[in-house]
Amino acid sequence: MNKLTRQLKVTVRSGKAELDLPDFPDGEVVVHVERPFNPDTDWTPEEWAQIEALIQPDPKPGAEVVAWMEAHPEIFEAWSHVKTDGVAWIEEQRAKRRQRKGLA
Length: 104
Prior knowledge:
Layout: H1 39-42, H2 45-55, H3 62-71, H4 73-77, H5 86-100
């Protein structure tokens, strides 16, 4: 079935909206309603709790970090083929950037 679609901007007052649809015949229409998301009112308390849990700092002592690293060697083995010193690599990238910009 072919559909005629119109996008209208409507002002809502006291929860009511009125539409003028001059090119629509009498009969049934389907209305899709959207509004901008308002984080102050649209999050549930449970959702806010989840969000706040994500942004809470969770500092770990050095010994715990080392223990975690030792318990997950596969993560670090993936980088074992890299032989470049990290500081040297950054300096190389900076030098290349300066050269491209004509500053070196």
